Structure formats: C-alpha cells, structure tokens
C-alpha cells in the first residue's frame, strides 16, 4: 500500500508539471476548493456512482488548435487535458470548454480578452485539466489548497476540474448539469484571469459566477456567466477566500 501511494503521488506531481516552464510556482489561489470542510458534513457527501475515484495520474491533451474567441484585447492561450482512466473523451471535454469560453456571455464579452486553445504545453498560458477526485485533490494540494476530493480548484497556470462535479454537479443546484459545467469552467478560469470570490447580491438574484456556488447559492439563483444581459455582473468581494 505504501508503494502504491508513492506511485500515485509521483504520477499526480508529474501531471502538474505539464504546464509550461514559464508559469509561476504554484501558490494558493482560492477557487471553489479553498475551504476545509463540507457545508453538509462529511457523512452527507455525494457517493461515487458512475465515475472512478482515481485514475492513472497521466493526462491526454486535446489535439489541434481552436479558432480565436473574442474580438479584442490580449490573446491568452489555453490547453485542455483529461486524466487517463476517467472514461472521458478528451475531444468532447475540449469541445465543451471551448464552447463555454467562446460564449458571448463568458469572459471574452469584456472585449479586453481573446482566447485560443492550443495543443502544445510550451504555447499555453494555462491548462484546463479534468481529473478524478483523488488526483485533483493531490494536484490542488500541491498549491496548498484543500478540496477533500470534492471541489475543483485553480493554481497558477492550472485550472483543475473535479470529475465528480463535472458528472454530477452538486445537490440542490437548481439548474441543469450543463449550467453547472459552464459555471465551474468560468469560475476557475476567472481565478486564472485574476478574479476573486464574490457574494450573492440578494435573495432571488442571479449568483455571480465568482460566487462559490459549489457550496450553496445563499438564496441566489444558479448562474454560469460573468456577463448577464450584455453587462458585467458582480457581487461584493468576499475577503480572505
């Protein structure tokens, strides 16, 4: 068992180093995965069903480049990779990430940012990973973030999406799985773009995309987009998260 644990840890560490050499060293940057306990308690976590808890620790990168998304601003390059052993198709995951980031309600709506997916690590500013709960937990922990295998997270140059959340979302989210998926991509990529956590403005209002919606909506309504009705939509900053 000790040998197996060391092997998995080394594999996850190798996966984290896939980001380009110019990325900053991983330091804690709060994503959804910065809390140390579940709101509902450990005994009430969703149980694994149709997904593996752990994979190989190695990642397959989506091939090819996407068109440039956005009309103006600096061009940021991202890569997409899926952990082997997840039974998830890397092309399908990449297509969803492309669709979310290329949506006119996403971050490109600022007209101060353009995005393009690339296949080569040396060309990428950041990588969007899809990883099993155990692998994502280890990867996030490399930067000092505690996810307990439940949430996704972001480290400098690394957007790490938890497979369980990708397939099951969270209890009582109140919106289809596709909305949660768009939310979690926009939320964690938002951190990569320098955004911080925000609070629910008022009960019944849309939740800001930088609200930690994985932990609950606090009376707000699920929302996946940083731009609502053509305008940037924000809540008050939440200090220290």
Automatic annotation (TrEMBL):
Top-level lineage group: Bacteria
In its keyword annotation, does this UniProt entry include Signal? yes
Q: Where is the signal peptide?
A: 1-21
The UniProt keywords, alphabetically, are: Signal
Where are the residues of the annotated region Disordered?
Answer: 23-71
Taxonomic path: Bacteria, Bacillati, Actinomycetota, Actinomycetes, Micromonosporales
Task: List residues of the DUF3152 domain.
Answer: 49-218
The molecule here is called DUF3152 domain-containing protein
Organism of origin = Micromonospora reichwaldensis
